[in-house]
Write a structure and sequence with these properties.
globular, 8 strands, alpha/beta, 229 residues
Length: 229
């Protein structure tokens, strides 16, 4: 029963909020459903979950077709520019924007469709070689450039912290994300107000919530381990 694992995650989030003096309503739990069948998504949908995260464009588009229309879909995986056209108008937010050229493509497609697409800037906060995302110092320039684009709105920063045995090891990275958001807002760039921090996965979402995450992306703890075969 996914209900039990889901409730466990919700309980952990609300306890972390309590410890940090935060309102649980300020934390959106995104159920990361990549590789999982729609039957499993429906099960957590029926428990009230309306935010789902996916990594692969084709899989995401297929699931959008099948699942109820009131779901907010979050694109969290690496996105190629030539696939942007499949997502614009269909997703609530693209978390994984890691280049100006990608933002430009989302902007152009959105303007053509007469909509504004919500985006986040992916930050490689620990400077890991294997990961996508801006370096800390690059995000300011990105925010400036995006601020003049009519078809995108930068609302947050996203990161995937390192995979560590002890989630406490990632606390400093989550703090750095929070302080980066404060520093960007302090620049008072027109049209940019960073209110979102998309950080924390199965391994470290509790620590992320304690440090200010507004969106946690949890897959395994809800749906179980993924099988990529
Ligand atoms: C797969 C994935 C998640 C969820 O990871 P779990 O460890 O299963 O919770 C979160 N964020 C991103 C970017 C992912 O690719």
């Amino acid at each position: 029963m996914l209900k039990d694992s889901l409730n466990e995650v919700k309980k952990n989030i609300s306890e972390a909020c309590k410890r940090a003096g935060r309102d649980p309503k300020d934390v959106t739990l995104i159920a990361v459903s990549k590789t999982k069948p729609v039957e499993m998504l429906s099960e957590v949908y029926n428990e009230g979950v309306r935010d789902f995260g996916e990594n692969y464009v084709q899989e995401l588009v297929d699931k959008i077709e099948i699942m109820p229309k009131d779901i907010r879909w979050h694109m969290i995986g690496h996105l190629q520019r030539n696939k942007v056209k499949y997502l614009v108008g269909k997703v609530a937010c693209i978390h994984s924007v890691d280049s100006i050229r990608l933002a430009e493509e989302i902007n152009e497609r959105s303007v053509k469709s007469g909509i504004v697409t919500e985006i986040m800037a992916e930050v490689n906060i620990a400077g890991e070689e294997s990961k996508f995302g801006f370096k800390r110092d690059e995000v300011f320039d990105f925010a400036e450039k995006v601020s003049v684009m009519k078809g995108v709105k930068l609302t947050g920063l996203m990161t995937s912290a390192p995979y560590v045995a002890d989630p406490e090891e990632n606390r400093l990275y989550f703090r750095e994300m929070k302080s980066l958001s404060v520093d960007i807002n302090a620049k008072n760039i027109d049209n940019v107000n960073i209110t979102g921090l998309s950080m924390g996965m199965t391994n470290d979402y509790v620590v992320a919530v304690e440090e200010g995450a507004t969106h946690v992306r949890v897959g395994t703890a809800i749906f179980g381990a993924r099988n990529y075969n």
